[in-house]
Amino acid sequence: MGKALLLFMMAAAPAFSQPFTFGAKLGVPAEQFLNTVESPTIGFSSYTNRYLVGPTAELRLPFGLGIEADALYRHYNFQSAGSISPAGSTLTTKGSTGAWEFPLLAKYRLPLKLARPFVDAGVAWDTLQGFWQSVTVVSPVPILPPANLNQPTHNTTTGVVVGGGIDIKVPYVHVSPEVRYTHWGTQHFLSSTGGFSSNQNQAEVMVGITF
User: Fold this and answer.
1) Quick one: 12 exposed, middle or buried, by C-beta within 10 A (0-12, 13-18, 19+)?
2) Residue pair 197/190 in contact by the 8 Å Cβ criterion
3) pTM beyond 0.90, yes or no
4) I need a surface site. Which of 19, 110, 121, 156 has the fewest CB within 10 A?
5) Would you place residue 84 in the very low, low, confident or very high pLDDT band (cuts 50, 70, 90)?
6) What radius of gyration, in Å, describes the C-alpha atoms of the chain?
7) How many Cβ atoms from other residues are within 10 Å of residue 185's Cβ?
8) Are residues 73 and 54 in contact, defined by beta-carbon separation less than 8 angstroms?
C-alpha cells in the first residue's frame, strides 16, 4: 500500500506543479472609448489611441487551469466646440485621460502540446488616471463655463470579462493571441446634455508574450 501511494505521488507531481509565468500584453481596441453625438450647436469628437499595453502574470494550475492578472494602460483624447448662450459666444474644450485596467481571470487550456486553445473569464477594474482638460470661452460679455463640464461621472468602474485565444509554445516563450470582451457596470463619462458618453462594451485584440 505504501509503495503504491509513493508511485502515485511521483506520477502526479508533474501534473500538480504550479509554474508562475510573467510577461507583457500588447493590444488594439476594437472601438472608440467615447460615443459622441453632434448637435446643431455643439460638435464633440474623441480619439482613442490605438493601443493598450501592460504587464501580465499567471499562476498555472493542474489540469489546464490557471489564474491570470493583468495591468493594461490605454489613453484617450477628446475635444468639443460650439456656440453657447449668450448669442455670439463660443466654447472650445480639449482634453485627455489615461486609464488603467486590472483584469483578474480564470483560464482553461485544452490539453494539447504546441498550440493550446484557451478560454478565460473573470472580473476587471478600470480607473482613470491623469484627467486633463482646457476650456476656452470667447464671448462679448464675461461668462464662466459650466463647473462640471466634461468631468468624469465615475473615476473607477467594475466589469465582467470573457475571452479566448491560443497559447503557442515557441522556444523560450509562450505567444498567446487573444480576443477579449468586457462589459462595464457603470460609465466613466455621461454628458448631462447627451453629447457624449463612455462605451460600456469593450472589445480588443491582443497578444501576450510570457516566459
Assistant:
1) exposed
2) yes
3) no
4) 19
5) confident
6) 24
7) 11
8) yes
